[in-house]
């Protein structure tokens, strides 16, 4: 019997032979096709397999001309192209599928446009993209080295946008009012729509509830004491510092009511700010040394400047100390009442994706660049009239 390693090698050779046939077929003269060029960075260490080094020349390239519904797979740093017909008649495909990571599925519309169907691991590199990808929205995810930043709240002038999914905390109203419920701060049992009694931690008994306005007042005093003045024009605050001093449970950003969500930080006399959650990327969760940076952060823009810098250099407003982050990584700024981001020629790039963008339509002569792991994909819809 063949051992498992030999079996795997044979499967890989089989995939490569299929891929070569497809590549040869795609080199034929065709008038309409999706020109695909892929750059794969050859990392010298497994620690960097999820990065693409934009400063390195140590990469290999692959080219495809696609004019049929197809799927691109990542197979040990080699991108394989499967057309639907080949997948259908290859009965052993699903046995081999465990060796593959599906990257991008491509379909074709009736108007000769190509549709790129993306998975959760695909990002858009800001080095090659402008509108609308550089506009930050609710639930926009920014990948900076080993870190991800997810936007939850944006306030620009009088326009407040919030991620309502994070406000899943209960609130007591008059219809289910219990007389013994009192605020732990003011000891009043008043309970109204504008100032409801709420439970925002794990405390029980007489200290279980607090008034919405009482807790906001406490937060306002705390933020004046604990806020960090990084630069004269900006304020930064770690929202994880808002927690119950008794049970140590972190307070939420807001909560749902029958009249809509309520936000604890609306007491701030600031026109422009945003709140994001900083996480160590899931592929590096085992590296406990980096978890100190995890949590919610509030960035407040003052009136004199509307641009903040992120990087590992000490001159940056928001510092991420990691070799995967450039000294001057990226900038977040306000332009035309929109929150935007740009890359500052960083080594590993600044990547972005929005929840609402899970497919891209490329019309005649349109281009797009997509990154997944250590592979960079250039797509262009070629139509020769």
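Q: What amino acid sequence fits the structure above?
A:
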């Amino acid at each position: 019997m063949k051992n498992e390693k030999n079996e795997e090698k044979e499967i890989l050779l089989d995939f490569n032979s299929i891929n070569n046939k497809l590549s040869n077929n795609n080199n034929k003269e065709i008038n309409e096709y999706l020109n695909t060029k892929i750059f794969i960075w050859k990392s010298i260490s497994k620690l960097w397999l999820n990065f693409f080094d934009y400063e390195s020349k140590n990469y290999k390239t692959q080219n495809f001309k696609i004019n049929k519904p197809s799927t691109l797979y990542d197979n040990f740093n080699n991108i394989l192209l499967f057309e639907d017909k080949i997948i259908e008649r290859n009965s052993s495909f699903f046995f081999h599928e465990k060796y593959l990571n599906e990257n991008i599925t491509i379909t074709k519309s009736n108007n000769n446009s190509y549709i790129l169907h993306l998975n959760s691991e695909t990002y858009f590199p800001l080095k090659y993209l402008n509108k609308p990808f550089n506009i930050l929205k609710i639930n926009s995810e920014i990948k900076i080295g080993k870190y991800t930043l997810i936007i939850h709240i944006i306030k620009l002038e009088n326009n407040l946008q919030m991620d309502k999914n994070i406000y899943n905390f209960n609130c007591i109203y008059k219809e289910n009012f219990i007389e013994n419920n009192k605020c732990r701060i003011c000891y009043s049992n008043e309970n109204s729509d504008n100032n409801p009694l709420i439970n925002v931690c794990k405390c029980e008994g007489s200290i279980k509830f607090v008034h919405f306005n009482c807790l906001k007042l406490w937060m306002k005093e705390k933020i004046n004491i604990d806020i960090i003045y990084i630069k004269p024009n900006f304020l930064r605050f770690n929202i994880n510092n808002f927690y119950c001093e008794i049970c140590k449970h972190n307070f939420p950003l807001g909560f749902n009511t029958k009249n809509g969500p309520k936000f604890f930080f609306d007491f701030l006399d600031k026109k422009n700010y945003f709140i994001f959650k900083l996480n160590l990327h899931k592929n590096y969760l085992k590296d406990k040394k980096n978890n100190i940076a995890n949590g919610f952060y509030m960035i407040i823009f003052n009136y004199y400047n509307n641009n903040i810098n992120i990087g590992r250099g000490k001159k940056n407003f928001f510092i991420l100390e990691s070799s995967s982050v450039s000294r001057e990584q990226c900038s977040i700024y306000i332009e035309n009442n929109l929150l935007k981001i740009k890359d500052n020629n960083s080594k590993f790039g600044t990547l972005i994706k929005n929840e609402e963008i899970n497919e891209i339509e490329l019309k005649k002569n349109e281009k797009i660049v997509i990154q997944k792991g250590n592979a960079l994909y250039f797509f262009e819809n070629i139509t020769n009239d």
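Q: And what stands out in the fold?
A: The CA atoms of residues 63 and 85 lie 20 Å apart.
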